[in-house]
Structure formats: C-alpha cells, structure tokens
Amino acid sequence: MSSKLIEIFNDEKLIDKIKRRLPHLFQLAELESSRAGKIGMEVGSLREKIITALLIYKFGKENVETEIPITESEIDANLFGVPISIKTITGARFGGVKLVWTVDAQKADKFRKNYYPSYDLLLIQINWGKAGGFYYIPLESQRRLFDKIGRENYIQLPKPGTNPRGAEITQEALSSLVRDKDVKAIEIPWKKTTIEFNPYKRWVDYWKED
C-alpha cells in the first residue's frame, strides 16, 4: 500500500488526538446542523469538512486539494493528487453508506451497471455511547471484494415505491471490507460531552464588528 493515508495510522500522537477530538468535533457538527432537536442532512458535509481539515492538519494545505467539482460525486479531496472518498455512518450496523445520491431509480440502476471502485476510502463509524471506528479502506481492498462477490452483492439499489436516495454499499459488503487484511482502523470511543452551543453567536459577533 503506497497511499499517504497510511501515515495517519502510524502516527501515535495523531491517533490519540483523533480518539479525543473527533467525537467532540462531530458533536459540534450535529449541533451546528440541528434544528428543533432534529439533525439536518447538511451534517454530512460538515463531517466531511472535519475529516478534510484533519488531512490538511497532517499533510499541509498545499498537499490537500479541496476544490472538487460538484460533478465528482464520490471524490471529497485530493491528497498529493490522489482522489479520496470520505463516508460516515451512524450506528453499530455497517449499512446506509451512499455511493451516489439520486432520486432517479433509472440513474441508480445505470450507476450500478457501470460502477467499479476507483478511490481510496476513509470511513467513519459514529456510534454514540459505544465504540465506533475510523477506517482506511484501500482501493485494492474494495476491488478485491467487488471482483469476488459481484456488483449485485456489492451495491444495493433503493426498493421500488420507496423514497429513493441513491445506491448504497450493501451492509454485507461493507462489513467484509472493514475486516479486510489491508484495512487500517482506529477504535473511537464515542462519548458526548456537555457543550454550550449558540449557532447564532459567531454571526452576531460579525454584526458587532465595525
């Protein structure tokens, strides 16, 4: 494995910081995107920014490209010119990770027919009150499993008649991926802390400026 992402999992100080800071930062993201106690869809984008910021912190701003065209639905950043996909899931089960977002069932079907893993994957499993994980799933691991089980078992399409949100990696495939011999993992204790949070404070502070 030649990916620079491996360096994160060999850096003991950074591993300790990820274990301590990631739950706090993701809790802030939830507070930032909540309204009347409900977490909005935008929390996903905030989580991706937090992980991208981790890459910038570790590897330097000059080595992390964040201006990715919106047409590149799977790419969230380029690290030393190499595309990376960032995914987050919540809960103990490895399910619900979207490969492509679309409300068009035909487009989702076409996506599955043409899909082949193309990018390294950083997967964060959020499991509040319990243990979750921060995983690096190399492209080679994804392709090895895809070739072994086939696209029908790797990609799940929305059920007809439901509100389709896109094509997902099947729970069985993702559970197999995180156990792959080449996957790197950091166990994260997902503990919430008491945070005094006011979503309007920083904006009010800006209004106060001359």
From TrEMBL:
Keyword Metal-binding part of the UniProt annotation: no
Name of this protein: Type II restriction endonuclease subunit R
InterPro entries: ThaI, ThaI_sf
A Pfam family this chain is assigned to: ThaI
Keywords for the protein's UniProt record, in alphabetical order: Endonuclease, Hydrolase, Nuclease
UniProt GO molecular function: endonuclease activity
Superkingdom as given in the UniProt entry: Bacteria
